[in-house]
Amino acid sequence: MNKVWENFLTEDDRKLLAARHNLRQPHGPGKVNALLVIDMQVTAMGEDRPIHEQIDRFPGACGPHAWKSIPVQQRLLAAARASGMPVIYSKHVFHGYTGMARAESGTFAATDFRSEIPAEVAMVEGDILVEKQTPSCFAFTNLHLIAQEKGIDGFLVVGNSTSGCVRATCVDGEAMGYKMQVIEEGVFDRIEMSHAAALFDMQFKICDVIDETSAMEIIEGPDTLRKSA
Hints:
The chain has helices spanning 11-20, 42-45, 63-83, 143-150, 162-175, 192-206, 212-219; strands spanning 33-38, 87-92, 128-132, 154-160, 179-188, 208-210. The protein has 229 residues and is an alpha/beta fold. A six-stranded parallel beta sheet has the order 3-2-1-4-5-6, with helices on both faces. α6 links the parallel β5 (179-188) and β6 (208-210). α3 packs parallel to α7 (212-219) and α5 (162-175) runs parallel beside α6. It is globular.
């Protein structure tokens, strides 16, 4: 299967890649992995129709790009929960009790319905929630402490947006020693070029970019953390 970024490569790009092959070797999954669902919130999804038609109500919407990822995420979530793999959600949100200005209004205010996780990928009992106010899931959150407590050393990543919070999280995660693997069909962005370029950058400079089939093999494999552990 062709990678999404191939449509954006110039002739010179292709010659360089042919000469250099891979700029980095894939590291594979961790010994104990978790499924990390980044910022799957109503504001990021919007409705399944052209983005430019809904930015008045959902200014951060990824529209059809987001909804295309939903079935993939649903299958991964079901498999991870069945296998006992930890499922960790992040939520970009501002609470009024913090006194932060963005808690007063806007799509990420806790009082705004657009900050909620949609029913299609809702959390269930046993899932873990990490709340954040910066792009990275690791910045000023307890994700690292949670991972240490559970012995997690690798993350399978889905969610939004590829060029923003997904990329920032993977940069930080790799710097902290985690094996980050982005599931190509499970992430999305508003601009197709940004999505493709971010996946390219992550694959060749930062972390692994894998497909759903490969992710399922990891989830259902022998190294999954079982609920009985």
